[in-house]
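Worked problem 6 (solution included).
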Amino acid sequence: MNTFGQNFRVTTFGESHGVALGCIIDGCPAGLEISTEDIQAELNRRKPGQSAMATPRVEKDQVEILSGIFEGKTIGTPIACIVRNQDQASKDYDFLRTTFRPGHADEMWHFKYGHRDHRGGGRSSGRETLARVIGGAFAKKILQKNNETQIIGHVSALAGVTADENNFDESEIEKNPVRCANRESAEKMIEAVMEAKRKSESVGGEITIQIKNIAKYLGSPVFGKIEGELARAIMSCGAVRSFEYGIGKNAKNQKGSIQNQRKEGISGGITTGDDILLKISVKPTPSISQKQTAQTLNGEINDFVIGGRHDPTIPPRLVPVLEGMVAMVFADQLLAPVDRINQIFR
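Solution. The predicted structure is:
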């Protein structure tokens, strides 16, 4: 499935080394003010080559709007946006025609579909996420217009370094390459990531997202719980390994009398209007330049070293992606048709 959402629908397309990647957005209301610069600002936060924390692949990730916007406003028709690939190094991946990298989707894609684009992982590449950032840019505009909703993501742990949450400073997030909201913690994270990079290693981390000024009564009981929709969106990102909201896994140590007094922003699967806190764990980048073993198409196990250009860590560039996915969940809920039966009998 390549489409997310029911009312605000985002369909992503394209491969890492193809001509372009992009998305089709359907269900976006007419009259929403948005510019190329608004979308580009979000893409610039995700694009490669920003620092030593990211792959050296040089891509401008310049968005092109093909349809659905006229004179700076949406017109209610499908919106098409693309980003053209420019700095592919496909020859680095020739060996992947017959070799499956450990920690990647190569083997599963090959045997499920029988034919795949092996260049840079094709559609299973993290480069697919740029389309999610584009969709998220529109969703954020919808939320800001409706309730001035803020979705603030930052790296709260990286390479074994945990940020000092007591000194959270939102203004610091975009000032450092690891997107940590604490300057001192960011410096320690950078040092740890660079040490791993020198050893041809990669590292994982944690992203924390704060959701402020969200509308009340989004989501529905049983199978439409908002926390379930958020989990589905967040867990659809390939590098994510776990999702928590509110007190999360620490609920197991909580007493009922204390837990009942907590305001976690969701009750009965429906938003209460209070702030929502999410924590997402992210695995290390699977592409590392150390010697590893890999299985080939004929079942042989061989030594090999991955070529190409890769991030030593994923979380800093994943922050705008996860913000976008969260925004799409709430935009989709916000645009859901009103349940007329409930209105009649209320």
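Discussion: The mean pLDDT is 90.
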